[in-house]
Amino acid sequence: MGTRLWWEQAVRQRFPHIRYVTIRSCGHHKATIYAWDDQLDLSEADAAKLHRYASEWMSPDICVSVRPYNEAAADQVTCQSPDEELTKTALKGRLDQSAVFAVLNNLFAGVVVSFNRYDVRTGTVHLAAYSHSPFTDTAKSKIRHYAEELMPVGSTVNVTYYG
Predict the structure, then answer these.
(1) Beta strand pairing call for 124-131 and 156-162
(2) For an engineered disulfide with 113, which of 56, 81, 104, 119 has Cβ 3.0 to 4.6 Å away?
(3) Radius of gyration of the chain from Cα atoms?
(4) Backbone angles phi, psi at 108, to 5 degrees
(5) What is the block-wise mean pLDDT of the chain (163 residues), using blocks of 10 residues?
(6) What domain of life does the native source organism fall in (predicted)?
(7) Residues 51 and 12 in one domain
(8) Of the candidates 125, 136, 132, which has an alpha carbon nearest to the alpha carbon of residue 158?
């Protein structure tokens, strides 16, 4: 299993004619690949090849669907550029728990993020974020987004904030 950024990079390398690609974890062990070629189109053949590639190389536990890139906006998928350190870590692909939390805890001064539990049924990773001061909505959103970037495709994140 790999992170979203790692899988997007793998798709770009395997399919160099795919110009736009983003992958979204939908929870419950599901993911969607949004893609377009140079002509801003996703042919049925490319969709089938992407689906086959994802089914063979992603975790066998993940149900993957492939959709045209323009449908990402309708599904409210945002394409934010994460922090450089986070990107480097996410591109390593297969991360262990200590690497994930080392990065998360280095990114946020005065905040400790820790693992709480994993819900196998829903594919949700439950985390706890601790701080001596209250969390702003912006900080909560950033912590959640960064944690999602470091989780395997097909899983989602739920963060409980204490502070």
Answers:
(1) parallel
(2) 104
(3) 16
(4) -120, 105
(5) 88 95 91 95 97 87 93 85 82 80 90 95 95 95 92 94 94
(6) Bacteria
(7) yes
(8) 125
Asked if 61 and 89 sit in the same domain, the reply is no
Domain boundary among 75, 94, 129: 75
* pLDDT given at position 1: 63
Note whether 111 and 47 are same-domain residues.
Answer: no
Nearest Cα neighbor of 113 from 91, 93, 137, 139 is: 139
Domain that holds residue 124: 84-161
Q: Domain tally for the chain?
A: 2
Do 91 and 157 lie in one domain? The reply is yes
- pTM above the 0.85 mark? yes
